[in-house]
Amino acid sequence: MSESSETKIKRWKGRMKDIASLLRRGLPFALGVFAALLVILLYHFVVVQPSQLSAEDVNASVASAMASATPPPAYSAQVYQIIQPSLVLIQTEEQHRDAESGFGLGSGVVVDSFGDILTSLHVIRGASRITVTFADGTESEAQVITEMPELDLAVIQALDTPLFVVPAVLGNPGAMRVGDEAFVVGNPFGLYSSMSSGVVSGFDRVFRVPGSNVEIPGMIQFDAAANPGNSGGPLLNRYGHVIGIVTGLINPTEENFFVGIGFAVPINVAVGGMGSPPY
């Protein structure tokens, strides 16, 4: 019985030694696991958690994204605003003996700080009275300063100009290509300050001035609508710069309406024919 007890005691001592040895070998691993758990616990409580998005936050983010994605205004709207201060309505009156007076309409554009107005010669040819209306509403009689029959152009000057004269910005027709945007702003059929848009259709065209033997070479062809009343007005590029003076249109039916082909004198040619100074 005594032997049996001693044997059991020895056996338990051996087991205890084995357990102690196992604990000594596993202690580093256990400490590592404990440290990892401690780090995770501290991170969870110490690091600031991202706040939850409310419905209002989501709606505000969507509205901001939509606002930033809104396209800029169309070029045509900007072009129209740029040329407005320089656009002029031209009205003419012709006195005929033993007949009623004749009236005409056209467009013009202010090209310098002196208030000189560039227009088509056929708009004011033969007029006994020329009246111009500026963008601010100023109305005045005008006189002819220069005629350029070889280009069907004329320069007129108002006797009473606005307090602030805004000349148009003159562009470079040589920088234009076929297919580039082109805009016409004028007074077709007396509809003040109307705009049409299209593209440049060609260069170096020859145009015969109606009712004359004058042929004008080097013209810009465009397809923006131009009708009676647009003559003398500006042809514009996408920046609102004047690249030509609208002169006429192809009129195979002898009717005064647009059929898709208009012509303009390049602005560098037009201004070059005005003389100097300041041209």
Essential attributes:
2 domains; alpha+beta; about 280 residues; about 30% helix; six-stranded antiparallel beta barrel; 5 helices; Thrombin, subunit H; about 30% strand
Write down the Rg. 42 Å
* Biggest sheet layout: 6 strands, antiparallel, barrel
Based on helices, strands and strand pairing, what is the structural class?
A: alpha+beta
- Helix share, percent: 25-40%
The poorly predicted ranges are none
Instruction: Round the mean pLDDT to the nearest integer and report it.
Output: 83
Apparent shape: rod-shaped
Element string (H = helix, E = strand): HHHEEEHEEEEEEEEEH
Task: Summarize the model shown.
28% of the residues lie in helices and 32% in strands. The protein is built from 5 helices and 12 strands.
What does this structure look like?
With 279 residues, the protein is α+β, with helices and mostly antiparallel strands. It has 2 domains: 1-40; 77-272, Thrombin, subunit H, CATH 2.40.10.120. The protein is built from 5 helices and 12 strands. The protein has helices at 2-46, 55-69, 75-83, 121-124, 267-272, and strands at residues 87-94, 102-110, 116-120, 129-133, 139-148, 153-158, 181-186, 194-208, 215-222, 234-236, 242-249, 262-266. Strands 1-2-3-6-5-4 form a 6-stranded antiparallel beta barrel. A 6-stranded antiparallel barrel has the order 7-8-9-12-11-10. A hairpin with a 5-residue loop joins strand 4 (129-133) and strand 5 (139-148). The longest helix has 45 residues, at 2-46. 30% of the residues are buried. The mean pLDDT is 83.
